[in-house]
Design brief:
Shape: globular
Radius of gyration: 18 Å
Number of strands: 13
Strand content: 35-45%
Helix content: 10-25%
């Protein structure tokens, strides 16, 4: 589990073909403290939970399967990535509970500056619409964010988010622009609520 609070921005150095997948070497800044990481540990890379397969100096490797590539964006190329180590029991949850299992890939409709902040509008896949709500939580490329507005359309939900200067400074979201692809994970609690409501509608109060 993760919290959606990005701990560092890494850089993909050497994407290597690995069967139908890819092997990535990610260089980390000193403050990420790779000395605390062991082979087999989980790290969220742009919101996707990945297993560390090798550590060397200030870099680590992950193997991304074809299945993961088909369900995510930005894990098969050079560039900056958001990094977060798996949380420990007893850690503070400053964001929200994030599993690192990407629910869908969205596209950026716009990124516009509003005073000192930025308004990010993302078109989420239609299948995620039931889990998105005003003031609810969403993880975008692994960053825990609060939804300011949701507009349902035939082509998916338009989600508006406010990005404060600090978030822009310490994450890769500053690199987003119209038509960028982003990894999305909805709030785990929303999934359970949707499931319970669906069962109640199908089976009635007998289940509860």
């Amino acid at each position: 589990m993760f919290t959606g609070i990005v701990q560092a921005v890494g850089k993909v150095r050497e994407p290597e073909k690995l069967g139908d997948g890819v092997r990535l070497t990610i260089v980390t800044p000193e403050e990420f403290h790779l000395e605390e990481v062991r082979v087999g540990d989980s790290i969220a890379v742009n919101g996707a939970c990945m297993t560390v397969t090798k550590i060397e100096g200030n870099s680590f490797q992950i193997d991304v399967s074809a299945e993961s590539l088909s369900k995510t964006s930005g894990l098969d190329t050079f560039g900056e990535v958001n990094l977060e180590k798996a949380m420990r029991l007893g850690d503070r949850v400053d964001g929200h509970l994030v599993s690192g299992h990407v629910d869908g890939v969205g596209s950026v409709e716009s990124m516009t500056q509003v005073a000192e902040s930025y308004k990010l509008v993302i078109r989420a896949p239609l299948k995620l619409s039931p889990y998105l709500a005003y003031k609810g939580s969403i993880a975008v490329n692994g960053v825990s964010l609060t939804i300011n507005e949701v507009e349902d359309t035939a082509m998916g939900a338009l989600v508006s988010i406010n990005l404060i200067p600090h978030t822009m400074q310490v994450t890769t979201l500053k690199n987003l622009k119209a038509q960028s692809w982003v990894n999305l994970e909805v709030d785990t609690i929303a999934r359970y609520v949707e499931r319970m409501v669906k069962l109640r509608e199908e089976e009635g109060d007998s289940l509860f």
